[in-house]
Amino acid sequence: MSSRTVIRGGLVITASDEIHADVLIEDGRIAALAASGTSAAEAFTGDRTLDATGKYVIPGGVDAHTHMELPFGGTFASDTFETGTRAAAWGGTTTIVDFAVQSVGHSLREGLDAWHAKAEGNCAIDYAFHMIVSDVNQETLKEMDLLVEEGVTSFKQFMAYPGVFYSDDGQILRAMQRSAENGGLIMMHAENGIAIDVLVEQALARGETDPRYHGEVRKALLEAEATHRAIKLAQVAGAPLYVVHVSAMEAVAELARARDEGLNVFGETCPQYLFLSTDNLAEPDFEGSKYVCSTPLRPKEHQAKLWQGLRTNDLQVVSTDHCPFCFVGQKELGRGDFSKIPNGLPGVENRMDLLHQAVVDGHITRRRWIEIACATPARMFGMYPKKGTIAPGADADVVIYDPHAEQIVSAETHHMNVDYSAYEGKRLTGRVGTVLSRGELVITEREYTGRAGHGVYTPRSTCQYLN
């Protein structure tokens, strides 16, 4: 059964162009674009026509950092692949890259198979995997080569969380040397976890147990130090490096310096660091626990440097690090001891709208919005131009976006499986109207018309900035 859809009258925005064009979709892919009102556009015919007059037509978002069903701190992230990908679609994201976890003492393959089992048949949108490497040994290093061959081309390591995910410098160096050979990309959680654990112990001994102390012990200097160290280890290994969830201006400075030296070093930040701050962590009555994540929220003065980094391309990607835990029963595990609060925030549904608000506020341009949220993450993780753009041959992952609609963010109306919103009460201009995933309607004029199982696993090539 062949199917054709025509999207008429919208402003098509990609990372490189803005054009008033009609879009022809055929059998799940973009077949053609033609300037609206021309004879070429009028020749487009379809089984259905979607009117995008006065709206933007943009590529579906690519969120390259999510944690559905992640085990953490004796509990699990509250979004399943079913609820999380449905919420992503509501927010205009049509591809996620989630993290499969290797447990210490187990193989990469076991971890990857476990995540495939969680996701398969449950996703509303397409998905791919990174691999968290927690146990570097000779077998693990061999497995990395095999995973790259089958389309899992990025590996995350942690300088934080001793005793859980932590890798020491020697393990990091070995993994980086391997990735330099096999074309993989090392993603780094850059915080000095050994030093942080000392500061946590000291804070608790002083009776400093409230959520705000989570931000005070995870110092910006310890993020910058770890970022610097990761860059130097990557340089020794001759490997590329991608630093996840950059939150501190001092860490941005380390990335900028490395990039000025011509190193293949990349950086990601997240909406929470652009829009929230330590003021949220300090909210009374344990409300601050809702904002506990790592790297932590920083004082507001860091935000300007993050926006600047996005404008100057010292930061290339905005992902969510979506890792939700309910306030009731999960975040509350840390009452009386901030170190027991599960680390993570909900955000997969909010990212595209928050970044559009950044366009409205003058922080970034429309094309840069699409670049940092769609095109660059797709290129960084080997999915472009299948994902991340609107061009002939690309998957028909398309969002019809109303730039004038106003909304108030609230847990009462969001679709993430979590009992609070990190952006409760925030007024935003712009809202997703209709979402197509590979040509199928997932959100139709603000109604969910998708289904679990539509989303398929997407193997990836290696980082496209290194070819």
Task: Provide a quick synopsis of the model.
This protein is α/β, with parallel strands linked by helices.
Tell me how many strands there are.
18
Radius of gyration: 21 Å
From the spread of the alpha carbons, the general shape counts as globular
Helical segment count: 14
The amount of beta strand, in percent, is 15-25%
Describe the structure in your own words.
By secondary structure, the protein is α/β, with parallel strands linked by helices. It is 31% helix and 23% strand. It has 14 helices and 18 strands. The protein has helices at 39-42, 81-90, 108-119, 138-149, 169-182, 193-205, 212-217, 220-237, 249-260, 271-275, 278-281, 301-312, 351-360, 366-380, and strands spanning 4-13, 18-26, 29-35, 48-51, 56-59, 61-66, 71-72, 75-76, 93-101, 126-132, 154-158, 185-189, 241-243, 265-269, 317-318, 398-408, 427-437, 440-443. Strands 1, 2, 3, 4, 5, 16, 17 and 18 form an 8-stranded mixed sheet that branches. An 8-stranded parallel sheet has the order 6-9-10-11-12-13-14-15. The protein has a two-stranded antiparallel sheet with strand order 7-8. Helix 9 (249-260) links the parallel strand 13 (241-243) and strand 14. Helix 4 (138-149) packs parallel to helix 5 (169-182), helix 5 (169-182) packs across helix 8 (220-237) and helix 8 packs parallel to helix 9 (249-260). The two termini are 38 Å apart.
